[in-house]
Specification:
Elements lengths: L1 E4 L10 E6 L3 H10 L5 E7 L6 H8 L4 E2 L2 H5 L6 E4 L6 H8 L5 E3 L1 H31 L2 H24 L3 H29 L8 E4 H15 L5 E7 L4 E4 L1 H17 L6 E9 L3 E8 L29 H11 L3 E7 L3 E9 L7
Parallel strand pairs: 2-3, 2-5, 3-4, 5-6, 8-10
Antiparallel strand pairs: 1-12, 7-9, 10-11, 11-13, 12-13
């Protein structure tokens, strides 16, 4: 068995402990970037304005907040203090209260960093959306098939109605036409919603089982489910905190890859969800070809793909891993060549009440 976890590529060095001063746009942008990096630990964020957006964002991420900057600056574990307050008096205040070993990033340096963070965030969003649109190109055959069936039905029923005189029969066939149109509209609606840019709304509590079912519907357009049996082992009420659009896209990528691994001889796709007090777990398993040991460590790298030219962007698993990291989750992979692969996604459990 070949097993890979996120931690396999994370440095064994102690994490860099960072304190953020300022919870406006700059502080919020830093939170969103830094909390995705395993080697960085955000020990807290401060702002005099208790309604600052970055403070609420930090609460959502379970990061300590305070309106007393001196307490955060003097934290004995802090390695780096990042001042994005824009307050010219803060520099002196920081040096009065910080430990000698702590470094400070402020002034023009902090503004440059903020611009870099914004630029990186925009690039990531564009990359995510581009990969999604590229993937939709592979849906063409599945979409054509699912739309053609109701269109053929509509045409046949419409031709019958041209010569039909019985009112009861006309009404029955009209109902069938309406239902066929609704099915076609549902296909277009699902694809339109999936193709749109991921919302920039704050993270919310997401029904995991519901998102997996939606991902199954979308993935059917990208890969043939012929001779593939789907098994669901869902624990009721499983939830996670995150961006629902991004989570759906990640699930579509994992499921599509699993089906592609079984496209020659068929097999079984198993979706499992379970939750405890501390964690929530999703397992996506296939009985396909498995992953070669010498490529297992590369599968989450950008632009890496084992598919034929023109059949993969190499960004699917990379973007999926980015989403999981953003939600403070981890991914482990168990794979047997010729027997199948299981991706296990583990997330922090949704906390009841305010963080």
């Amino acid at each position: 068995m070949q097993r890979l976890t996120d931690s396999a590529v994370v440095s064994t060095l102690a994490p860099i402990k960072v304190a953020i001063l300022g919870a406006g746009r700059g502080g919020t942008a830093l939170l969103d970037l830094l909390h995705q990096i395993p080697s960085i630990e955000i020990v807290g964020i401060s702002d005099r304005d208790r309604g600052a957006p970055g403070l609420q964002r930090a609460r959502d991420l379970h990061i300590p907040v305070t309106d007393r900057a001196e307490h955060l600056i003097g934290n004995h574990g802090v390695n780096l203090i990042m001042d994005v307050t824009g307050d010219p008096t803060m520099e002196r205040f920081v040096h009065m209260h910080k430990r000698p070993a702590a470094d400070v990033l402020s002034g023009s340096a902090s503004r440059v960093l903020w611009e870099l963070v914004r630029h990186e965030s925009n690039l990531q969003a564009e990359l995510f959306h581009a990969e999604k649109l590229a993937g939709i190109g592979s849906f063409a055959a599945g979409i054509a098939h699912d739309i053609n069936n109701p269109l053929q039905l509509i045409m046949g029923l419409a031709e019958n109605l041209m010569d039909e005189r019985d009112v009861t029969t006309i009404r029955e066939q009209a109902k069938e036409i309406i239902e066929a149109v609704r099915r076609t509209s549902a296909i277009c609606r699902d694809l339109t919603q999936y193709a749109r840019r991921s919302s920039v709304r704050d993270d919310t509590v997401v029904s995991v089982n519901g998102r997996l079912d939606e991902a199954l519907k979308i993935a059917r357009y990208a890969a043939s489910f012929h001779d593939i049996f789907v098994i669901k082992h869902y624990q009721a009420g499983v939830e996670v905190r995150g961006n629902p659009d991004e989570l759906l896209h990640a699930f579509v990528n994992f499921i599509t890859n699993a089906v592609h691994a079984m496209d020659r001889e068929g097999g079984t796709l198993t979706l499992t969800t379970q939750q405890s007090k501390e964690t929530m777990e999703v397992r996506i398993s296939d009985t396909g070809c498995g992953i070669q040991p010498d490529t297992l460590h590369q599968i989450f790298e950008p632009f890496f793909t084992t598919k034929e030219p023109g059949k993969g962007t190499g960004l699917g698993l990379y973007n999926a891993k980015t989403v999981v990291n953003k939600m403070h989750g981890t991914i482990s992979v168990d794979s047997h060549v010729g027997a199948g692969t299981t991706f296990t996604l583990t997330f922090p459990a949704v906390q009841e009440g305010p963080p």
